[in-house]
TrEMBL record:
It comes from Rhodanobacter sp. IGA1.0. One of its GO terms (biological process) is rRNA processing. Its EC number is 3.1.-.-. Belongs to the endoribonuclease YbeY family. This is Endoribonuclease YbeY.
Amino acid sequence: MSAPVILAVGYAVPRAGLPASASFRRWVEAALRGARRRKSVELAIRIVDADEGRALNRDYRGKDYATNVLSFPAELPPGMNLPLIGDLAICAPVVLREAAEQGKAPRDHWAHLTVHGVLHLLGYDHLVDAEAEAMEALETRILAGLGIADPYA
């Protein structure tokens, strides 16, 4: 049985051609199952434009360009026991450009970046090679369960 998920999806860009909140829910739930997360979770996903994506990346990571997905893990005070795991900001124009450049179906790329972001919220990272390999292998297994080809192949 999967953990209960409270998910808020906000669109700061026109929704035409973008995944619906139900798709994001399916991808989030798949990531949680794949990571064997059994506790309930709460998170928000905001779909942003290039200007907001760039500002967020600049302000929080010191990198002055829009990137595909940014993860903001919840930093709760000690003793605060809430299911909040954090927030994701996904930059629509970057996702669509990357999908085209990489010859991927946009929907598959959206799914991959959602799974990738959720894993970051759960503490997975790719700063060192061993962690990167483990995270990529987990992403690949989760996506295969959704019928999506290995995004790293």
